[in-house]
Amino acid sequence: MGWTLERGLALVRELAPILLERGWGIGLTGSVLLEGRSRNDLDIIAYPQTRVKGNISELEAGMREAGLRLKYDIKQVHAAWRSQGSQDDKLVQVWQTRTRQKVDLFIMD
């Protein structure tokens, strides 16, 4: 079962108030936004709501509160990229929903 625009929006709308309480905004990006679906993952962006840099631990706590599970943290994602020869340094985490669907979280900090 993949992601659809409707299911992606539902998750973003569920996450938005939880993350906002913790100082983070959220947006939808990637193929679900552009094509309406994805067989692989849902790409979302988290960004601090204030001029003060965001606290990533608060972001993670909000994601957990919404029922998601951290599968790969930033260091693990970077290690996987390095093993493939990439020097990409974006802040990305991989999360999993209760139904084991993959969510890539791009963090703007």
Shape: globular
CATH class: Alpha Beta
Q: How far is it from the N-terminal to the C-terminal residue, by CA?
A: 31 Å
Q: What structural class should be given to the helix and strand makeup?
A: alpha+beta
Q: What is the CATH H-level superfamily? A: Beta Polymerase, domain 2
Strand order of the biggest β-sheet: 2-4-7-6-5
Order of helices and strands: EHEHEEHEHEE
Average pLDDT, to the nearest integer?
95
* Helical segment count: 4
CATH topology: Beta Polymerase, domain 2
Helix content: 25-40%
Q: How many domains comprise the coordinates?
A: 1
The gist of it:
With 109 residues, the chain is of the alpha+beta class. The protein contains four helices and seven strands, in the order βαβαββαβαββ.
